[in-house]
Specification:
The protein is α+β, with helices and mostly antiparallel strands and 359 residues long. Helices cover 37% and strands 28% of the residues.
Length: 359
Amino acid sequence: MTRPMPPDQFRRLARTLRGEIVDGLPAAIDLVAEAAAPTHRFLRYQWYAAALRAYGGAARTLTVSAAEVAMLALPMIAVGPARLRLATVPGSYWPFRGFPLAVDAGAEVLEQALDTLARDVNALRIGPVADDDPAAAALFAAARARGWGVAMRTLGQGWLLDMAALQAEGAWPRSSTLRKNRYHEKQLAEHGALDWRFLSNRDWPAAFDALAAIEQASWIMARTDGSDAKFTERGHGLFWRTAATDPVLAGMMRAALLSVDGRPAAFSFDLDAGTLKYAVANSYDPAYAKHSPGKLLYYRNLIDASSRGITIVDWGMGDSGYKQVIGAAPGPMLRDWLLLRPGLPARLAPLISRVWRGR
């Protein structure tokens, strides 16, 4: 396992930095992920392997090491015509498409990464990522300083629920909210016996079938082509089932499941990263919509998460109405980024940015 390197030691070893791009996904990705910020420790080998299996592509990985200690790992796949030398970071759209960076990596690591990358690609897409992403923001700043062009397009407003702050201000959830929830639970129970369960690592991958069954009955299948469903065969089910074969990733996956008379009725699926919870997906069977099963389940899910030390929920973009009702507030914006190699690509950055934004 990678051990944090004291700053003075890192400065002494800076001259031993080595950057390289290798075919495939090296085991060093896990070492860097373990040394990254807690919010980024899910960016493991199997996370990217799952993306390749589910969505296709052949990976190459940029790594930077200091005295043989891996400090940065950036998987990428080629996109577009080969002659253009374009690449993108693979992964799931949410929580984000990023890369792991050791928390004690200095500016020299980022500079070495960019110099190595410039010999291999003309443009690299990273995103979506939040504005406060520690790895991506540091890389973009270093890129600008070394003459890279940086193009960006805004995707939307992120939403955060700071449970710790709300609890510090007073009782959360409010007593009135809990009373309303109990009332609706009694009404829902008229449909049959209610079973509230919390799923964790031992339940994967088998429990994905119950989540997929709820999605099959939900609005997403009735109103769309179903390709954005998270756990169905038509949707992103292969990605999550493949990712869950890594015991570490499986241990980060959490879900709350409501069944009515043994029939899966609602779920909420999350990825826990330290004290932060990424809310990945939630859905419910519309047969029970009158009694708000999704909301009832999610309050139970949040209370359970708080009891386990989760303080913040990152809800990502969209559906701000119910998020604000629960207590969420605007968080960092989510954006897509293009890094453009120094030279002609960088000089074209303003034009590329306008085209990319559709302006």
